[in-house]
UniProtKB/TrEMBL annotation:
This is DNA-binding transcriptional regulator, AcrR family. One of its GO terms (molecular function) is DNA binding. Keywords: DNA-binding, Transcription, Transcription regulation. Residues 9-69 form the HTH tetR-type domain. SUPFAM superfamilies: Homeodomain-like, Tetracyclin repressor-like, C-terminal domain. It comes from Paraburkholderia caballeronis.
Amino acid sequence: MKTPAGRKALSHERIVQSASRVLRRDGFTGVGVADVMKSAGLTHGGFYAHFDSRDALLAEAIEAASLDSIARIEAAMPQLQAQGMSAFRALVEAYLSPQHIDDCEQGCPMPALCAEMPRQAPEVRGASRHILKRMHGLVERTLPAHAPPAAAWAVVGALSGAVQLARAFGDTDEGRAVLAQTKDELLARYDT
């Protein structure tokens, strides 16, 4: 039997995970407290037992989205490396995969939220920056030794921008071309 504190922790996690999915799909403005609580199977009135404000929820949701998306990418990489790919190529292939483009709710929040980040409350902006730093760290760890350290930010920008453009085009020749050409360019430049 779960303790009340254990139930509260589970409810809290359900709220954060629900908000994380909505955040990646609909952006900051799409996260409504009532809808998130309903999606988590809880009443709207229980929100303030878990969070001081909507911004506190957004900060936790973006943190959860960031950790989840990095974990998904890192989980996909060993399978690709087992096929003979370098760590960098595995990262590029995993990030620019059609599955990542199609599944906004589970994907990296960076492409969905970057344009909105500067307009958020300070605590949300601070949490948002963790996405950028985590992705930068992942790219930095996978870049080949000969790549200049400053290349990591360029790669992060190219990956995020390619996802934004591919999602904007949808499942079209143009959308697929954005992914293919970005992969080709990044691999030609850094995976030699």
